[in-house]
Amino acid sequence: GAAGESAKGEGGREDTPDPLTYVFGKPGEFDRDLAMMGTSRRRFFTINIVALLFALGGNFLGVTSRLLSLVPDRQALYLLPVELTLFYPINGWKRYVGDGAYELIYPMEWLQDQAVTFANTAKGSEDRVLAMPRKRASPGVQTSVAFGPPQGDSSENVSVVRSKVPSSFSLRDTLGVPQDAAQRLLDTAIAPKASGKEATLIRAVAEERGKGEVYEFEYVVRLKSGKQLHNVCAIFARDGVLYSLTVLCREDEWEQKGARLSEVARSFRMV
After folding, report:
1. pTM of the entire structure?
2. Cα 166–167–171 angle (5° rounding)?
3. What pLDDT shows up at residue 161?
4. Which end of the chain is more exposed for a tag (fewer CB within 10 A), N or C?
């Protein structure tokens, strides 16, 4: 009959509805269905928008991380406020900003060393109390933050150390070119003659990162015990403070883990 013919298109095939009609039905059908469920169009969309926001905000089933991971070259890590990157790992990475001076990325499964956090918190409280009657100078060297694998040992981790230096200090003017600076670091701080350790420099480079120049060194340290640790160190100076990042693992694991750990070192930059 006429009704049957109207439901069919040319050639006797049924017409394919457009996407809007397919989802919401013909005019009036969507509102009738909502009325049967005791709700309205406004309430339906409000509830679903709120549910979507909760899903994205809570990273439900990792949906937010997956969406952000579509941004190339991990740039999504730098699109979010740093506090949110703790909850939304991107492509297996999280981001950290320390002292308002530096930032780095680290593997999402790594944990922050709470002993360092507690020590810094306690030191801050102590300084505030002791500063009331008299001003006291801070120690010259302090660990700012450290991360490592859960239940791991000290042979695999990343840490950032801050050291007081003269306000006139600069990498090139004070330490020289990267190769000289690296060798000086190894000879005086990492493996001095009396330490019983041996250090072999692999490479030393300088790069512009963020708001300043960073020196990066790669080297292997042989301990008294015979164990060898593969290290990548990145340093920069700012406002009378030398910031030094070191990421390391055992030499026999470097082939497997080195590319990932090198990414941590490459991410270290001045902000």
Report:
1. 0.69
2. 80
3. 96
4. N
Beta bridge partners of 215: 206, 235
Distance CA 186, CA 183 (A): 5
> Which tokens belong to 20?
């809007």
Q: Which residues contact 194 (CB under 8 A, 6 or more apart)?
A: none
Q: Please name the residues in contact with 77: beta carbons below 8 A apart, sequence gap of 6 or more.
A: 85, 90, 93, 94, 95, 105
Tokens standing for 54?
């909760």
Give 222's Cβ-side CA count (13 Å radius): 7
DSSP string computed for 243-255: EEEEEEEEGGGHH
- List the structure tokens of 105: 């990325």
Residue 136 vs residue 165, higher pLDDT: 165
pLDDT digit string, tens, across residues 217-242: 999 999 999 999 999 999 999 999 99
